[in-house]
Amino acid sequence: MCYFNYITDGLENVQQKKIFKENKEKTLQREEPCAADSVDSLMAEMPFVDTDIEEECAMHATSELNSKKKRKRTTGRDVEEGIERKKKKNKQHQPNYFVSLPITNPKITGSIQAVQDAIIQKDQRLSKAMVRSGSLHVTMLVMHLSSEEEISIAVGALSDSKVFVDNLLKGKRVDLSFQGIDHFRNQVGFVNLAENDHTTLLKEIAETMKMIFQEKGIMTGEERAFKPHLTFMKLSKSTELRKQVKKIDSSLYEDFKNHYFGDEILHRFDLCSMLKKKQPNGYYYCESSIVFGEKQAAEPDDAELVSLSKRLVENAVLKAVQQYLEETQNKSRQTDGSPAKTEEAASGSKNESDNDNSKKEP
Description:
alpha+beta; four-stranded antiparallel β-sheet; 11 helices; elongated; disordered C terminus; cytoplasm; Cyclic_Pdiesterase; AKAP7_isoform_gamma; protein kinase A regulatory subunit binding; A-kinase anchoring protein 7
């Protein structure tokens, strides 16, 4: 009997030790810190989930373990603040002005409108991506102007560019031929400029203008090679649209892939604001312009001016003579001794004489 009790007591001790061990393991598990993944899943439910805080969250998960983790958390805040400063700096230097070559040929604007209508018929959502015909242009330069003083400097740089552009043109007419459609990363749809001598000249003008603006202290954007193009559609025009459409399907404008849109005669450059209110026709707010080329040369030459002056003089002389004759006739009618009055008096006397003679006859 004693032996049986000894065995029973031994089994109970073993079982109690096992239970004690299991309880101890559970207690230790509750005391362990949460894993970083668990913290991230909790942070995802927080209202500032879109903030760039991944590094800070990961460090915060183990911040109570030792002072080293605390120092890392501070470093995380520094990183975040640095990112915010960089974002703010980039926003302050985003382009807000540009030099524009306006597109005014009705054939080009009409053809682009036809393409836009065809695309919208296939995808109504893209109506928000279309550039208005009044806003169509080729961008020559982009820049950030932060004050009225810088705007004034840019106006002066554009004015100085006229002399250099005139020297490059040398009186030649520049026809810019627009043909074919292409895209940038399926985000922007544009019409190409056909590669020819005139397009090469336009690129040379852009480089010259860029140099002049930079010499004035105006930085002009990217260092990439100038690629002239005519944008007619871009997803960035609508934040809502960009959530719905990630890419523009090139098949939407497949029928116009090699379409000829027309030629634009180079005649004007404008310094335009991206942010100020547009003009009623849809074109950008314009600070200044320079005019040259074919449309300026279309003004009357010397021979035309001489011929026009001659016609004006002849018309003036004829009008003066006619006016003189009318005034003379009016004065003659108002004067008693005028030929008209004398004739009337003579006619009256003759009638009276005839009446007297008729009375004397039997």
